[in-house]
Amino acid sequence: MVQFDPLILRRRPRDDRRHYGGTSWLGGLPALAGRAWPRAADGVPLTFIGQIDLGVLGTIRPEAPLPQSGALVFFADLRQAEAGTPDHAVLHLPLNRDFAPLPEDIPPLYGDDYAKHFRFAPTRAAAPKGLPRWPLSLHPAPWDGERGEDAIGSPTRAEALRLGARERRGLSVRDPLVAAALPQAEVLPGLGVHWNHSLHLYGNSLIQMLRAVPEICAALETEKDQEVKGPMTRASRGRWAQLLGNRASAGAETGDALLAERQSGRDAAAARLDEIERLLPAFHSLVSEVAEWSDRRAAWDVITPEDRRRLAMTADRLQNEFKAFGDMPYGRNALYRLGDDTLRHMVHGDEALWQKLPQALRDHINEHYMMPHIDDGWSQALGHGRDRHGAGAALARDHMLLLQVVADDFMCFEPGKGGALSFWIRPEAAEAGTWQATTCLIETE
User: Fold this and answer.
1) Would you say which domain of life the source belongs to (predicted)?
2) What is the pLDDT of residues 427-443, one digit of tens each?
3) Long-range contact list for 359-362, CB < 8 A, 24+ apart?
């Protein structure tokens, strides 16, 4: 097995003057020294993942067969952020400050799935096209080859916790320490909405729902028009019974029950289609009303008590009257997620947004949120990395880990549920500088 002790990657505190500097970072723009932006096999620009300063890495881990200067710059295709081996690129470049602008034809982050990740983006054009920038510090950690790095009690895990790996889930307005630092609500204290930006999120999420109606209706039409076969023959009943592990005489009853269940589903689809058709004008009107209302509010003003009440009443109405349109992105009992998403937007936004957060909250974030949740692992260079389903372990037999980035809400990085993106290379290829021999892997829970 090819292994070198890992380096844990920790995001630098946001108030650090080096937030827009540094020589190792995730997200933002790459320093390409005049090189062309790498593209996927179909010609679409790849997403910039990050850069690692090899001078810093080599000082800490001189035994690793990597260049002692310059930087490794990583790109991957995140349009389908699910398990697999996406198109990717790894470049070895001199350290430089020649930042390349985003290509004009770069797609939204996560491609056509952008709406699942960015509720604030009502259109494809409004979705982010890259990960937010966050400079990194590199920290040596021991490796436990017996149990694996993320095993309970492993020295690597212990070091990650010491460095600040979170034992609480994402930043939330429901956290008492967070809530105490936010602008206090005069009414509806449990709502969790503090800035008008959350109203914009709400309006845009409803626009996304409205635009999804044709797709929903097409699926319901397909379900409604499915042929319901019957009556079942003795042979078909026996087949159903066999599939269900029941060869007894109850097979006939089972088949009839399945037939009835299918007919019930068909009837439910037809009824839901009728309900959507009946309610569509009213739903369209309400979505337009909410969008116009939110657009009239300055995003970063503190929300008024009147608008808090109106938001709660609107959520009640949507939940009670428009169930046929599917689950609301921000249901009446989950409006706190508006506040959560607004907080994350401010944390990885520009300096002006960051400074709008109270100092006590900025201090809290810098102390407790510079690494992902411990259950998702931690980003690192070298070592073994977090293995989800064995693919990483198989590569680790004769490859070395160049970089692994795990799911991190502060980075808007979501490679599937609890996923990880990793870059591997054989040591001899790294020594030869054959970076095109790198393997890229996305693993999910």
Assistant:
1) Bacteria
2) 999 999 999 999 999 88
3) 360/180, 360/181, 361/178, 361/181, 361/182, 362/14, 362/15
